Amino acid sequence: TDKGSVTLIHLLNCDALSSVATDEISKSIDSIIDEFGRKHLLISMEGINTVGSWMLGKIVTTHLRLKKEGGKLVLCDIQQGTDLKEIIHITGLEKLLNLAPDVSTGLTSF
């Protein structure tokens, strides 16, 4: 979904992202950036309990790439008490990544 200059990506209805889902998501994100030239991404993690290291790596590399290219990646809707929230905290990624509590707040951060 495009919200002005921001592309909103919803990852819904999956507790844990499988490697197949992660690969498809990765290809879609790359396509949004490379083919459509979108540089401001807001990804809703609503309903996601955990992600594997590969997906975490993809999030970090996409964040760094967009930042280098003058864009921005924001993750939102990471729910308290999920493994994902704990992983982000334990790894210190909350200091690196742009996080927002919800979509509305995420949109205002661009």
Whole-Å distance between the termini? 15 Å
Q: How many strand elements?
A: 5
Gyration radius (Cα, Å) is 13 Å
Model regions low in confidence, pLDDT < 50 over at least 5 residues: none
General form: globular
Which structural class do you get from the secondary structure elements?
alpha/beta
Q: Summarize the amount of helix as a percent range.
A: 40-55%
Biggest pleated-sheet summary: 5 strands, mixed
Indicate the proportion of strand residues. 15-25%
> How do the strands line up in the largest sheet?
1-2-3-4-5
Query: What number is the mean pLDDT?
Result: 89
Number of helices: 5
Order of helices and strands: EEHEHEHHEH
What keywords describe this structure?
five-stranded mixed beta sheet, alpha/beta, 5 strands
Short structural summary:
This protein is an alpha/beta fold.
Structure, described:
By secondary structure, the protein is an alpha/beta fold. Helices cover 45% and strands 18% of the residues. Strands 1-2-3-4-5 form a 5-stranded mixed β-sheet. Strand 3 (40-44), helix 2 (53-68) and strand 4 form a beta-alpha-beta unit. Helix 1 (19-34) packs parallel to helix 2 (53-68). The mean pLDDT is 89.
